[in-house]
């Protein structure tokens, strides 16, 4: 009898355990943080509260190092990769901006002239994202009954995370400060319109926003190399240039994203229906360009301090709405950091200034000497050379030979480490370096030559003659954290690929992975 009761109790315990482990989340909250650094989370954590980053790190499944296996990830390409589970070669979002049109102008990667904007003059849509996303697959699985909302400082992050079937996808318009969207999404949402027209809106408050330290200045002592301990005070309305663009480099923008996320949870009753809902939020954790100390600023510590509070408020709101066991929250960094390095005046460190306009002019002169006096180069952008392909075709010039000659010439420039042609990426012999470039290549968007600069060099243009960003390897911790949904606290030291995140999230939702995702599920989330 005792053995029988023990067996029944054991069976009940196992059944209960697996039932807890397999609860489908009623609400998923995907949080991407632009330029979030894992080492900064460690450096600054002594000032954090108990309900934000500390809670995530102590109670979540924590991956210390995520890689983006393509060159120069930025906000748009990284978030598109997280939500599609594949690389730019397939999803088509190579950078925040792309080169388009006969004039080779720089436009948003999500430019789409077929759709107008609401609260913006920009014409954008998610259609340039060429594959499905986590959020798309959730909409498909629920026959459109799941709600999907996305809020971000910028359109690219919103459209990449909201996907093609979002209930609503909104970003802060650069010139008005209103929450804007595209007519691609036909549904209007009263809570967003009301906020835009209220006294709470950024448009109403911009002139009164002053950024001061949240904590006493002596608390911000994580960097022993900070040259100036100062009680900063940044009046946003007095900033040089567009006030709203400046504001997007401050913690005020995270407060806005958090506010709208909480309004969506409440107004749309997210997590209260028979099908899971999804809330995508994108925050900012990068540098403030007007900081007095470019390398080790007080401002970056204050940004993380305030972001910690925003994260805690989101977690609390989700807990109250559905309970954390019924929610899956993931936090992922975009995997890069815009360093603002200022070298001491007497430092004689390796490196130098790479001037694209000079590079373009000399290369064109070389090509003229071989192929005739024509303007063979249409554009230099983002370390890529764009040739006049129509002219090359009209002149019946061998395109592969043309590229190889140009690459052989450029490799001789000071500061150039390597030059890879688009032909090599599509048709050349395989090697690991070429594969990384190919992952970040898309035939309709990217250039003809890819230039890799040596570490320590900076790119200097007439528009940006005092650029403080220098070429660096990605020598920083890039975290991904999964929390809630009965996940067991785990610290994972192995390197994971950003493309593993999407299939792991869809696995927890019991839906198909995005249609271009072919990676394995993270075993700790199985």
Estimate the strand proportion: 15-25%
Give the biggest sheet.
Answer: 10 strands, mixed
Mean pLDDT: 93
Overall geometric form: globular
* Distance between the first and last residues' Cα: 36 Å
**Fraction of helical residues:** 25-40%
Number of strands: 20
Low-confidence region ranges = 3-20
Query: Which secondary-structure class do the elements indicate?
Result: alpha/beta
Write down the oligomeric state. Answer: single chain
Strand order of the largest sheet: 5-8-7-6-11-1-12-19-2-20
User: Total helix count?
Assistant: 18
Give me the Rg, rounded. Answer: 24 Å
Describe the structure.
- The chain is of the alpha/beta class and 526 residues long.
- Helices cover 34% and strands 18% of the residues.
- The chain has 18 helices and 20 strands.
- The chain has helices at residues 2-21, 38-44, 53-59, 75-84, 88-91, 134-141, 155-162, 190-196, 202-205, 243-247, 251-267, 298-322, 356-371, 389-394, 399-410, 422-427, 432-439, 501-509; strands at residues 27-34, 61-67, 97-100, 105-108, 117-118, 148-152, 168-172, 179-182, 210-211, 234-235, 277-284, 327-333, 353-354, 377-381, 384-387, 416-421, 449-453, 458-459, 480-484, 490-497.
- The strands form five sheets. Strands 5-8-7-6-11-1-12-19-2-20 form a ten-stranded mixed β-sheet, sandwiched between helices. It has a four-stranded antiparallel β-sheet with strand order 14-15-17-16.
- A hairpin with a 2-residue loop joins β14 (377-381) and β15.
- α4 packs parallel to α7 and α11 packs parallel to α12 (298-322).
- The longest helix has 25 residues, at 298-322.
- The radius of gyration is 24 Å and the shape is globular.
- The two termini are 36 Å apart.
- Residues 3-20 have low confidence and may be disordered.
